[in-house]
Design brief:
The chain has 172 residues and is an alpha+beta fold. It has helices at 40-54, 69-74, 114-117, 123-135; strands at 2-10, 18-22, 27-31, 62-67, 79-81, 86-88, 92-98, 108-109, 144-148, 165-169. The radius of gyration is 16 Å and the shape is globular.
Length: 172
């Protein structure tokens, strides 16, 4: 189990997840047990990711992230925004999906114009994930992230050569 060391920023979306730096030196999108979409979303994310991986589709590594009460107390932004109140995130084990790199040096896009979509190196994986999402009734349009990997960085979830446009399915 990894430990969350630092909150970087809140992410978009109804689960109000947070980008966090963890004890293994990587960054993770962390969804908390007390998120507005209910804790069952954490199980759905874990099972969906594991199932897609078993089908041979590219998925981001998922882990359990331990978030301490101290980190929540010291980080005012670690809170859930409810209609009439602000509730601190719950301490304890949370769901984490690995962010594809250092957020200070990696630009992510959840939409690409058609001209750029044709440049995606693993477009067949994109099509496979689209079929998987339809099969599992996943309607979240932001499940796909596009990024340009730095020339020397090999990425664990793709076979494409470095420097090409890459696509990755991440449960954010």
């Amino acid at each position: 189990m990894l430990r969350a060391l630092e909150q970087i920023r809140r992410m978009r979306g109804g689960a109000q997840s947070h980008l966090m730096r963890c004890s293994d030196g990587n960054y993770y999108v962390v969804k908390f047990q007390n998120n507005p979409q209910h804790r069952r979303i954490l199980v759905n994310e874990l099972l969906g990711t594991k199932l897609a991986a078993r089908l041979g589709l590219p998925t981001t590594p998922v882990v359990i992230v331990e978030v301490s009460e101290e980190l929540i107390r010291m980080t005012p932004d670690l809170a859930m925004e409810m209609p009439r109140q602000r509730i601190p995130c719950q301490a304890g084990p949370q769901f984490g999906s690995r962010f594809p790199g250092d957020p200070r040096r990696l630009a992510l896009h959840d939409f690409l114009p058609d001209e750029q979509l044709r440049q995606v190196a693993n477009l067949h994986d994109f099509a496979g994930m689209l079929v998987f999402d339809k099969w599992t009734c996943n309607t979240n349009g932001r499940q796909t992230l596009f990024f340009q990997a730095p020339p020397r960085e090999a990425h664990p979830t793709t076979d494409s050569s470095a420097g090409e446009k890459r696509r990755r399915h991440t449960p954010h």
